[in-house]
Amino acid sequence: MTSGQLDLAAKLRFARAAVFAQLSGLPDLIRARLTAGPGTAALLTDREPPDTALTREVLELARSSYQKPLLGHCLRTWLWADLLGGRDGIKPDQELLYVACLLHDIALTDRHRPPPEAACFAVHGGEVARTTLAELGAEPSYADEVAQAIALHMNIHLPTDQGLEAHLLHAGAHLDVAGTRAGELPRQAIRDVVSMHPRAGFPDCFATLMLRESAERPNSRAALLWRLGMRLPLNHNPLDR
């Protein structure tokens, strides 16, 4: 994936991977809806994000750019990513992960929407993040890593060899949208996260944005996922149980 625009062969590969991922994830989703989840809560309700000058600037940008349901999604994405990282023994750069999670849907906002010629909102969002972070004084390599993580987060799979932070952003975002890996988390941890950042209005908000992306960028990953039935896991996410 470069520009984010899929040709026919790429669409077929992407569709096969998406369908296989949905089918292989069904047992986990069923378990998440029927059980309390494994173990004990590993996430404390007072979990605080990294507090640096950069994270404060990025949080302010997020608050001023996102609709409330989408801001909540980005904040939950970080918490899910943090929790899954702890569960899997992954030790990312915490600041970089937080910044990437906060900015990963920046191109879905009215302020930073892609131009008509853009092929993919996630790729455009990565470029917005890169430019923004450079303006805030981040090192070019740091801004590049954030941009890459954001550009890749709409992939079906994202292994750790493409970046620990990218992998965890992907995991957290897919969990919040579709419930992926929810069955691996303690039910109390899920309650804690949803209590901190309620999901009210998020499924409808995200569905509206994905429908728009599907219409405006029909050859993008978002459009293909929407046509493959994204609405179903979005509306039946076990996080809302």
TrEMBL record:
<protein>
    <submittedName>
        <fullName>HD domain-containing protein</fullName>
    </submittedName>
</protein>
<dbReference type="Pfam" id="PF01966">
    <property type="entry name" value="HD"/>
</dbReference>
<dbReference type="InterPro" id="IPR003607">
    <property type="entry name" value="HD/PDEase_dom"/>
</dbReference>
<feature type="domain" description="HD/PDEase">
    <location>
        <begin position="66"/>
        <end position="187"/>
    </location>
</feature>
<dbReference type="InterPro" id="IPR006674">
    <property type="entry name" value="HD_domain"/>
</dbReference>
